[in-house]
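Quarterly update from the structural biology core.
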Amino acid sequence: MFYLCGMKKAVFLLLILLLSPGVRAQERYQFAQRDTLALYMDVYEANPGTETAFQGHPKPLILFIVGGGFVRMSPGDYVYDWFETLNANGYTVVDIQYRQGMKGYKMGKGLSGLAKSSERFYQSQQMAVEDLFDAVRFLIQKKEQLGLDPDNIVLAGSSAGAITALAAENQLINGRIPDLPEGFRFRGVMSFAGGIIGQKGAPKYPQAPCPTLLLHGTADKAVAYNRLGTLRRGLWGSKYLASKWEKQGFRNYCIYRFEGIGHDVAAYMNYLWDLEKAFLEQNVILGNPRRVDAAIDDSSLPTWNQVSVNSIYR
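Predicted structure, tokenized:
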């Protein structure tokens, strides 16, 4: 009798969980095999009954790349809270894994350590970009099975994930990505404290990037806000990219500069939903050419322990 009551109670609690708002249907798929490492993507579907279109246009799929310094993939609760926000607003999210090229690497101190490690950083970025495009090819090949639209993807990344997203878009418009349908483009990029790592000088833009949202702290010591490096090697951050796009006359991007804030912006996804929502609806979905350049000085935004390059790779 006690066993039956316990079973009924467990079933009842399970039904409550399944029917509760915010609980997402989640599926996992292997999209690549790298030697002994299997790479997976998780799909978080838009909540049932939510509006999955805006003014008659379907909302894009958000393909998220988590940060972790190319050392670890460790999404915190803030990531899943953000997924819930997206799902509750009619957006489906795909969260992908990628190889961690800096794992186990110990870098020397200061600029000299960074210079000696530049090739390793670049290769780590390139590995992540390669894995990202494997995920994109999987979405293209399995679009009927998954019920997802690979022609309507917005990349979103945090820290190393933002570096991966920006580098992928840059390499795509420079024609360096094979085995994709002709004319394939991303619908947008959202970068939380990102930049582009290069070995042969600053990134080149022979044409305008897709609509891009740059969010970066001006005091970031982990991913340079402007530029960090020597000679033609280094990392070009949000400030540099926005300046370059302005000089080239590109109009469809937004940059928000968080005054005096460090790498904390990499974890601000769920604090900046209003900015993200406006970008997704106006720049991406409606395709309105819209350039925003704003400095934000907001003491209500949280800050945590300052993260620097040396603190990650010590």
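The helical segments are 2-19, 77-88, 110-141, 143-146, 160-173, 238-247, 273-285, 309-312.
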